[in-house]
Amino acid sequence: MASSLSASLSSHVCLARKESFSRVPVKALSRCLVPRKGLPEKRCFRILYNRKIIGAVDSMATREDATPAINDGSKIRVPHVLTVAGSDSGGGAGIQADLKACAARGVYCSTVITAVTAQNTVGVQGVSLVSEEFVAEQLKSVLSDMHVDVVKTGMLPSVGIVKVLLHSLNEFPNLALVVDPVMVSTSGDVLAGPSIIDVFREELLPRADILTPNLCEASTLLGGKQIKTVGDMYQAAKLLHDMGPRNVLVKGGDLPDSFDAVDVLFDGEEFYELRAARVKTCNTHGTGCTLASCIAAELAKGSPILSAVKVAKRFVEATLDYSKEIVVGNGPQGPLDHFLRIKKDIQVSGKHWAFDPKSLVLYAVTDSGMNRNWGRSIMVAVKDAIEGGATIVQLREKDAETGDFIEAAKSCMEVCRSYGVPLLINDRVDVALACDADGVHVGQSDMPARLVRTILGPDKIIGVSCKTPDQAHRAWVDGADYIGCGGVYPTNTKENNRTIGLDGLKAICLTSKLPVVAIGGIGLLNAGTVMGIGAPNLEGVAVVSAIFDRECILEEARKLRLVLEEAKHQSLVRESA
Ligand SMILES: Nc1ncnc2c1ncn2[C@@H]1O[C@H](COP(=O)(O)OP(=O)(O)O)[C@@H](O)[C@H]1O
Ligand SMILES: Cc1ncc(COP(=O)(O)O)c(N)n1
Ligand SMILES: [Mg+2]
User: Fold this and answer.
1) The CATH classification of domain 79-339, taken from the options 3.40.50.1370, 3.40.1190.20, 1.20.1560.10, 1.10.645.10
2) Cβ < 6 Å from ligand 1: which residues?
3) What are phi and psi of 99, to 5 degrees?
4) Which of 77, 264, 312, 517 has the fewest Cβ atoms within 10 Å of its own Cβ atom?
5) Which CATH fold topology does 348-576 show?
């Protein structure tokens, strides 16, 4: 047995946990078999490395039909949770919470719907069960085709549906199973009646890798045992463990008089008391489903139980905190919002509009040396540039200390927001993130634009400096919003910078799919000529010395803007002629 396990394990280790195992030679792994009552022995081992448990591959390592590799060249298989649960029309709990929780944790989630509920923040107005046959059909569709790592159950409203699920689980004995024994909603409405208790106790719980009851569910499964203290939760966890699940997490969200949100985990050997700050909020509808789905998601990624539970609990706490003030319905129990953190970021940035190429008309690039020479702060310089007519600002502080740069950038952000002018950061993606800037401008030797896009997300502005049509094409492929082309004329703000001239600029504009801003030695005297090359995607000019190395920034910016407006007018006249 051990040697066949070893062979099976070796061939599946890489597939199981790409990140954590790919760097560990398979031979260095040792196994421990944990035979368990009523379960096939092969499901019950953990992987040890240097006598530490570094992962649990029990659900996948021995699946005969497992995909041969998780990362063979271009093919990457994502961790996959199948939720078998009820739909909540209000979107707060059930299938909807499971989908959101898995998505938020970066795990694929397929769904088998057991019941459709008419539900909102007031309560459950109606329940319609899906037929056993159709639950079976959904299970077959998913399991016959997709590689599922973990099954998570929520509302299982009838004995027949539990039996159908058990039948599928028997066919796939190596699937990990998280059982959230949903019985009553937060609003107090019954979702699964007492008739299911026997089949739960006798057949489903012994199959579970972890059982996650709340106080009421734990009490019901234990025949009405009172659970009022943390001590009672320990006892309940122990008694439920005796029913067969490998791990039991008794959740204390509803524990009376408790400052903390305490949960008790028992793995058959040790108890773990997990505490989080109790968030003061009514928006707790869906916490149980979310917690169980997150546990399933972490297990699918390869975490051992304890760290899966810890991460899941931290996620629920943080999500509750983010959503504590949202108002979704008029009832007493609102839902949590799994993505509020992301939405908050979007709101804070205040940038609800898409990038407008017209904002490139007068592009002001700051220079710390010039500001120092003229004895003015970067914030004052930026404000004057905008008041004079700059339509976009880039902070280019090559010699500033990072901390100072961030502080300056934050102040400039405030100024720019108050005028509705985008602020970009030169090179420094970290600074842009720290001050929530509108975007970043990178050169050819900085971080690749594609990576910048991955880090900053879809709605930030990314610009790339280009000297050739090829570079312009690359910038477009990489997801940039505009390109900066130059130096058009020689300049002393950039050393050893090859100039491309008006011809070079024109050649790039002709092939570029992105809007272009011209840069390099441009000022009052030549801005009109540059704009006159007649390229429709040449939106404007970027200037440094022409405004920042002058006594009155505001005045210089104003004059430049006039020249640019005139050039635009001329090109419109030419076009219509
Ligand atoms: N107000 C809260 N603040 C922080 N965590 C909470 C809060 N309410 C519940 N939790 C946590 O949410 C998870 C779900 O718990 P619980 O509400 O007891 O389950 P259910 O939603 O199934 O009734 C647990 O980890 C619990 O500790
Ligand atoms: C379809 C469905 N599944 C589960 C729950 C439990 O969630 P909660 O305990 O947060 O009300 C629910 N209300 N509805
Ligand atoms: Mg709850």
Assistant:
1) 3.40.1190.20
2) 214, 251-254, 261, 263, 276, 278-279, 284, 287-288, 291, 313, 316-317, 320
3) -60, -45
4) 77
5) TIM Barrel (3.20.20)
